[in-house]
Amino acid sequence: MQIITEPGQMQSIAEKLRLNRQCIGVVMTMGALHEGHLSLVKLAQQTAGTIILTIFVNPTQFGVNEDLHQYPRPFENDVALAKAAGVDFLFAPEAEGIYPEHYQTTVACSEVTKVFEGEKRPDHFKGVATIVTKLFNITKPHIAVFGEKDAQQLAVIRRVVQDLNMDIKVIEAPIVREQSGLAVSSRNIYLSIEERDAATILYKAIGHAKKRVAEPEYNLAAIAEEIEEMINSTPGCRSDYAGFVDEATYEPVETAETGKEYRLLLAMYSGTVRLIDNAKIRA
Ligand code: AMP
User: Fold this and answer.
1) Does 180 reside within a domain?
2) pLDDT per residue over 19-54, tens digit each?
3) 197 and 126 share a domain?
4) What's this model's pTM, rounded to 2 decimal places?
5) d(CA 258, ligand 1 centre) in Å
6) By CB distance 3.0 to 4.6 Å, which of 23, 48, 205, 231 could disulfide with 239?
7) Burial 185-200 (b: 16+ CB within 10 A, else e)
8) What DSSP element (H or E) covers 208?
9) Domain for residue 70, yes or no?
C-alpha cells in the first residue's frame, strides 16, 4: 500500500491507473478507521480492482462549536488497518494541500441540505459536497462507496453526482452495528460506559418506529414524537431531532402512504456526545 499526501501526485497516479484500464474504487473517511469503514472497502473491492482510501478530517464541514480539534487521529493504526484490508493507495492530505491560500470555491446543494442534519448544522453539507467533489477530482474513481450510516449525506452526494453529471457510480453500504445495536462510529470512543449503554435507545427507537409503521400507523409525526419522548426519558439522553423524509426526495413527511418508502432520521446526545442514526421504513 502506497501512502500519498500530495493531491497532484494522487491525481497523476489515478490518471495512470485509468490509462491502464484499472477500475478505481474510492472510500472516503475522516480516519479513526473501524469495522464500518472496512465494510465499505470490502464492498468497493467487489467491483473495483484498485482501491483508494482517503483520510481527511475536513475542517469546512465542522461547525464552530464542533469537535474538529478533538476528532481522533490514530494515523499509524489506520495505516495498519488499511493495509490489512487490501487498500492499494491511502490518500491522506494536509488541510493546506486541500485548501491552499486564496481558496474560494464551494459546491452547494439546496433542498436536501435544508432539513434535519442540514438545519442543525448550517454549512455542514456545503463542506461535505465540496470535499467530496474535490476528492472525486483528485482520485478519479469509477465507483465510490458511502455508508448508509450517514443517509442524508449520501442523499446529498447522490444529488451532486447527478446534478453535476459526474461519471461515478455511487454504491451504498449498509450500517455496521455493535451487538447492542449502536451504530459503529469514530465518535463512539468519546462515550463513557454509561453513555454508551444509554445510547442504545437510538436503535430501540428505530425498532419502535418499525413496529408502529407495521401496525399500520400512518401518522409519522406522532411516531416521531413518541421516539423523541423515548429518548428524552432515558437518563443522560436528549433528542436533537427525529422525523421522516420521503426516501426518494428527502422532503419531510408527516403522514405515510401505503407502499411508499420513508427514511427515519435521528440525532441525539448521550451526555455531550452527538450521535446520528437512521432506517429505511416501508409503510
Ligand atoms: P466518517 O469517517 O465517519 O466520515 O465515515 C466515512 C464513511 O464511512 C461514510 O461513508 C460513512 O457513512 C461510513 N460509515 C461510518 N460509520 C459506518 C457504519 N457504522 N456502517 C457503515 N458505514 C459507516
Assistant:
1) no
2) 999 999 999 999 999 999 999 999 999 999 999 999
3) no
4) 0.98
5) 31
6) 231
7) bbbbebbeeebbbbbb
8) helix 201-214
9) yes
